[in-house]
Amino acid sequence: MGSRNNDVILSSQFAAILSVTIIGVGILSLPRLVVEGAGPDNWILLLAASGAALFVGLVMAFVVKKFPGKTYLELTQTMFGKPIGTLITLGFSFYLVIFCAAEVRIFGEVTKQYLLFNTPLEVLSVTLLVLAVYLARSGIETIARMAEVIFPIATVIAILMVLPVLPELDVSYILPIIRTPFMDFVKAVPTIFFSYLGIEFILLYGSFVKDTKKVHKSVLLTVGLVTWFYLSVTWLTVSRFGLIETTHITWPALELFKTVDIPGAFLENIEAFIMAIWIFSVFMTLAVAYFGASLTLSQAIKSKEQNYLVLPLLPIIYFVAMIPDNIAQVTEFMDLYAFYMGTLYITIIPVALLIMSFFKKDKRGKKSA
Amino acid sequence: MPRWRKISILLLSCILLTGCWDKVEIEQRAFVSAMGIDKFDPQEEQEKDGAEEETEPEQISRNRYIVTYRYPNTSVIAGKGEGEPVFKATSIGRTITDINSEVATKLGGNLFFGHLKLIVIGNSLAEDEQLMREVFDYIERNAMIGRKIHYMIASGKAKDLLEVKLARQPVAGLFVRDIIEQNMRTSQIADADIGYILRALHESRAAITPQLEGSEDELKVAGAAVLKDYKKIGWLGELETGAIMFMMDKVKNTEITVRVNELFIPVMIYNSRTAVKVEVRDGEIYAVFDIENEGELSQHLFELIGDTYEDEYLRDVAKAVSEKIKNQVEDTFIRSQKEFNADLIQINEELRKHEPDLWDEVRDNWEEVYPKVKVEANVETDIRRIGTTR
Amino acid sequence: MGFFDKLFEKNENPIPKIPIVKDFQNNLDQIKEILKDGDDIIYREFMVGQEQDMKFGLVYAEGLADKNLLNEHILQNLMVLCRTAPMEVPDLRDKIYETIKNGSVAVTDLKEIDDIQVAIDMILSGESILLLNHWDKALVIATKGWPMRGVNAPDTEKVIRGPSDGFNETLRVNTALVRRRIRDPKFKIKQMQVGQRSKTDIAILYIEDIVNKDILKMVKERIDAIDIDAIMESGYIEQLIQDSWRSPFPQMQHTQRPDTVAAALYEGRVAVIVDNTPFVLIMPATVVTLIQSPEDYYERPFIASAIRMLRFAALILSLIMPSLYIAITSYHPGMLPTDLAMYVAGSRANVPFPAFIEAFIMEAALELLREAGIRLPGPIGSTIGIVGGLVLGQAAVEAGIVSPLMVIVVALTAIAGYSSPSYSLAISYRLLRFVMMAFAAFLGLYGVIWVIIAILIHLCNLKSFGVPYLSPFVGSAATPQDFKDVFIRAPLRYMKNRPQYLHAGDSQRLAYDTQEILTEEGDGNGKQK
After folding, report:
1. Is residue A118 part of a domain?
2. What is the pLDDT of residues C200-224, one digit of tens each?
3. What percent of chain B has pLDDT over 70?
């Protein structure tokens, strides 16, 4: 097994990890959610959600910068005291396990719908989980490299695939501007905000970053890139399907590519190809969350090596993923789950950490920075 | 080697060895290239002698569709086998899915819809709202069926059209696509694929679909059917279809013949652009179509030298062309209001985008408001080329 | 400098020393005893001096020592010339070494030793040992000279433009070929012996102020740690010192071309030359170095860039094409254009096997052909190629066992695979191709993606001497500068730095103002004479 990594990543790699993590299964249904939420004002909704994501992201970046090199457990323990810190870390691990399970389940459902109709869901989930185990065991450095490789490849291919749709981009669909009732709009923001699920990893992986001072730049870059990505997907989908049909389709972003004709290309129906790229990004989300789950668990139970905890988590994630009966249940559960657990770990804890960090003056942290 | 690795390898191989769930070799698939859906009519079926299925009385009520599939004989395409280049299969049943599986069992193969190019709907089915909605939902829900396929309404029965033996049988067996592409270039037909139709139906509950006509050895796309509330409510002629295409900015090439100074002058139109606007003037809603064309004069009169080299004259011709298009567009629009009350151009979407306040007012009774919308077409045509003689 | 001195400190000889004594016969007997039954060792005893009173013994291994040199410059001098022109040294016994060195033995390299074990090593590596009566030392005469291949053009890694000298099996010749290209005093050739029995000479080559010292140290330590009976080829060294033996990917580059080695040294890499083989190891290797060909740098940048991109595409194609064929035909025929899908379906109409078996048979047949072609001598090898490729393929298609498209896919795969400049990378791909085909047969496109992800994870994990294998795509040290030599080969005037991911000591390669000067001259119209 090659030389063991020394677990240090750069802020640029950090940004790549965050980007591939945030862009996951959500991208497929995102246009529907956005249009459902705000109709023609979808872009404002997206920007508002990204603003919220940026805010919590920067809060977390601030905490990371203030206490460089501190693990999640250390952070929560110094701020809230030992037992609560351990509890929060354990809860985070639990949260990530469910996150993984949902990711795996949706991956399985989409793949079954578009690629392999008769292959059992179990096989699809287990095979993907095995890969995730492999990557999660390899450590943060390998994950960082993987993100660095996959992100540009996926982006370039996605852009190439989108080119044929571009001429039909119809910007008039953003009209009329700001007609959505304000309350509807506000109610819709959290839903879209949870498309940025994954931003909470800033706190978790911030401790690995070598040049901590640039963490806020990574956050900016990540949120910017992801928002741009989301915006372009939404606009393309809307100009292809119109507002009303977009809300009818379960996974509009994928359906979009059924309408794409690449003139004179070797491949005709490129949605299978898009699926392939999408699998890459889902896999990265899964692996990063998986690694996070094992990492937080190892921190919480004070195990030295995170490696040994990876494989035992597989059956747990697998069984949790198999609990829901159908895709409707998955979505329902995800909404609830994202609302409560997501809010807790994305907004409440980082903000609480920020507030507490003003009270606690960390002596060692600042000097070692 | 750590134990986890052994376990995972074991696990993986177990999974894989039981595998190949989806594997269907390409030659065992029947690539359905066209599908015809008709309404099952019990009486008609009984009258007909030698019906394919013995229909028992209690079965009749259960059967609702007749589906015809057309799929190519791939061996012929690869130049390996002989025989009919195209196979056909027909069956009846309650739902399309039922019929699919029944036919698949009968063929001993797998029906594959990934390369479906055409769905033809029989006239009688097109008039049945319930069945039409079922068919639309089937198409929209099916992950295999693309959104670029053609959806047409037959003037008669879809089954008959799919069984037409073409005089010039294309080897590729993709007769549908060849015909459509041929038609696209030459005549004014509705450029409407299923993606557009679904979207239009979602937006204004009205759409046009091309009409497919057939004779002994010929298939022709001519005119269009008007869909309103998911069912067919009438036909449009070729010129009207052309006018609708102008309004939807989907004209690529077309030909307009005008009469100037007792001469019939055909003008090839290319580079046509349409901008749709909705304006409110004096409390009236106006649908404004700004159409800009470029054209080429393709025929004049022999030995009449000089005329076509004059800008003035060309402008007259262009004006006549513009006038003609303008009339067509306005007439067709009015017909869509008066006769069908079907918002084929999705004026409601334009209204929603550009006049949101007004739209909020009329949103709920758009059905009543639409017929009152005034139409205005501003057509501008430039004749750029006159051919090789003066 | 301390660093380098420490790095190459001699480790003590574990074999106990057997001192040379004054008794001539005793010394000779000792050697004879150790080298008993070595019938290729020649012991020549002769008398020297006017009175024939000095007993000399010459020991050498026949075939390894240069007989002409021994005859003409040693034996003749000592036996004949010394008699005619007596040596007028008073204290001959004490000053024998100086006398012989300065007066009688006309060879370039003489050494004095006092250990029989060392003497034996020397004999076995081709030197001659001169023993004298009543003297407790022995003389080593550099007489290495054995039949060897000339400096021929290498069989592999052929280029159209570029030098065609290649390494041969002799270490000294090989180091000379590299030294000719680097006349820099900082260029170091450090020699050592590896192998308990084989005592193979190994030379570590590096340029002192360019090389990354961590990498050099790692190379040195790993080679030192080798304790094996024999080193037959540089492949032994490669396998013993590579980072991950489980990986199918080569973590070192091997070459027969001195210009490749020199270029690598200038980039800050380390080369290891092993005696008895023309294959020189270059480390660390990254996936990019395995795709670069020396010719890329000799040709014009545009064409070189285009060819390099073609090579990248070929590598990817050769890996995924058969599995993509399986996945598409057996799982996702919707991906093909309709006409093609129908054609494929028709052409497979009577093929009795599923696509996977079909592909497997063809790929296996291809591998067989390749293997047979290599083993057979040249002309027959090409016959096998023709018979196998054309006749077999044609017959298989006509018999309907495989579809023509499959033959095309397999042939394209093979050609694409051959286009890789690195043979070891190409063969690792051959293996992965089969794995991927198996997964494609089970899970279709998802299986292909699955294997690609698995390979990617493995590649991300892999390091070659501390350098990430996927550099410069990943890794903290890579800079955008490095991409000037990845997919494209930037014009030389823009490649101002050595690869950054290697952390080379002196990273600048081209003076920063060169470009302006070159451009100025190019614009000047009256400068040519």
Report:
1. yes
2. 989 999 998 889 888 999 999 999 9
3. 84
Cβ-defined contact of C457 to A134 (cutoff 8 Å): yes
Whether B117 is covered by a domain: the verdict is yes
Decide if pLDDT at A351 tops 50: yes
Q: Which residue range forms the structural domain that includes residue C84?
A: 13-141
Neighbours of chain C (3+ CB pairs under 8 A): A, B
CA distance C232 to C241: 15
CA-nearest of C327, C247, C254 to C289 is: C254
**Structural domain for B40, as ranges:** 26-236
Assess if residue A200 is contained within a domain: yes
For residue A128, list chain C residues with Cβ-Cβ distance below 8 A. 450
Q: Which residues of A are less than 8 Å from B347 in CB distance?
A: none
Q: Are residues B230 and B330 in the same domain?
A: no
- Cα C425–Cα C426–Cα C428 angle in degrees, nearest 5: 65
Q: B76 and B181: one domain?
A: yes
pLDDT top residue among A273 and A320? A320
Instruction: Please identify, among B236, B256, B276, the residue that sits at the C-terminal boundary of a domain.
Output: B236
C280 in the same domain as C303: no
Task: Look at residue C370 in the predicted model and tell me its pLDDT.
Answer: 81
A120 CB near a chain C CB, below 8 Å? no
- Rounded Cα–Cα distance for residues B148 and A256 (Å): 11
Check which CATH number belongs to the domain holding A317 and give it. Answer: 1.20.1740.10
The pTM of the full predicted model, rounded to 2 decimals, is: 0.88
Would strands B118-121 and B150-154 be described as parallel, antiparallel, or unpaired?
A: parallel
Helix locations, chain A, DSSP H:
11-22, 26-38, 42-66, 72-80, 82-114, 121-138, 140-162, 182-193, 201-205, 215-246, 252-256, 271-300, 307-322, 327-337, 349-359, 363-368
Q: Is A43 left (phi over 0), alpha (psi -120 to 50) or beta?
A: alpha
**Distance (Å, whole) CA C349 – CA C342:** 10
- Beta strands per DSSP E along B215-332: 219-228, 231-236, 254-260, 263-281, 284-297
C112, C72 Cβ separation under 8 angstroms? no
Residue B9 lies in a domain: no
Residues 6+ apart with CB under 8 A from A275: A110, A111, A114, A115, A254, C445
Q: Is the peptide bond before C294 cis (omega within 30 degrees of 0)?
A: no
Per-residue pLDDT for A214 more than 90? no
Please check whether residues C309 and C280 belong to one and the same domain: no
Instruction: Give the containing element (helix H, strand E) for C214.
Output: helix C213-225
Secondary structure (DSSP) of C341-384? HHHHHHHTTT--S-HHHHHHHHHHHHHHHHHHHHHS-HHHHHHH
* Domain contains C338: yes
- List residues bridging with C463 in a β-sheet: C468
Residue A162 lies in a domain: yes
- In this complex, do C441 and B23 lie within 8 Å of one another by their Cβ atoms? yes
Report yes or no on C517 lying in a domain: no
From the list B375, B378, B380, the residue with the least C-alpha distance to B345 is B375
Please indicate, yes or no, if residue B18 is contained in any of the structural domains: no
Q: For chain B, how far is it from start to end, CA to CA, in angstroms?
A: 88
Q: Are B204 and B319 in a shared domain?
A: no
Residue B78 lies in a domain: yes
- Of C467, C483, C508, which residue sits at a domain end? C467
Number of independent structural domains in chain B: 2
**C461–A142 C-beta distance less than 8 A:** yes
State whether B48 and B178 are in the same domain: yes
Tell me the nearest-neighbour CA distance from C229 into chain A, angstroms: 26
